[in-house]
């Protein structure tokens, strides 16, 4: 599992960063995103849905959101 720490970044930076990083992963790989931007609760599910990735969880631990995204399966 790959970890992406976007703590301190505000919208739209966490989504831009995850978008770039997920392209480097293999289909089915998982990525953990850490963010302290409350907007991630709305932005990440919308981004996952529009890009066909699976949002496995969003958990708030103190001020930090820990989000797990699974890259979409190979579409070929």
Structural summary, described in words:
- With 76 residues, the protein is of the alpha+beta class.
- The protein has two helices and four strands.
- The chain has a single domain, classed as Translation Initiation Factor IF3 (2-Layer Sandwich), CATH 3.30.110.40.
- The protein is 29% helix and 33% strand.
- Strands 1-2-4-3 form a four-stranded mixed sheet, with helices on one face.
- The mean pLDDT is 96.
Give me a quick take on this structure.
The chain is an alpha+beta fold and 76 residues long.
Major beta sheet, strand line-up: 1-2-4-3
Helix content: 25-40%
Mean pLDDT: 96
Annotated CATH topology: Translation Initiation Factor IF3
Can you tell me the overall shape? Answer: globular
Q: Unreliable stretches, pLDDT < 50, 5 or more residues?
A: none
Determine Rg (CA atoms, Å): 11 Å
Note the gap between the termini.
23 Å
CATH class: Alpha Beta
Instruction: Note the total helix count.
Output: 2
Largest sheet: 4 strands, mixed
Can you say what the CATH homologous superfamily is?
TusA-like domain
């Amino acid at each position: 599992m790959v970890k992406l720490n976007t703590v301190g970044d505000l919208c739209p930076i966490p989504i831009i960063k995850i978008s770039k990083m997920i392209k480097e992963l293999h289909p089915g790989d998982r990525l953990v995103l850490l963010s302290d931007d409350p907007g991630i609760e709305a932005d990440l599910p919308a981004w996952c849905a529009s890009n066909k990735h699976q949002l496995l969880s969003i958990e708030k631990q103190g001020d930090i959101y820990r989000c797990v995204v699974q890259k979409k399966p190979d579409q070929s």
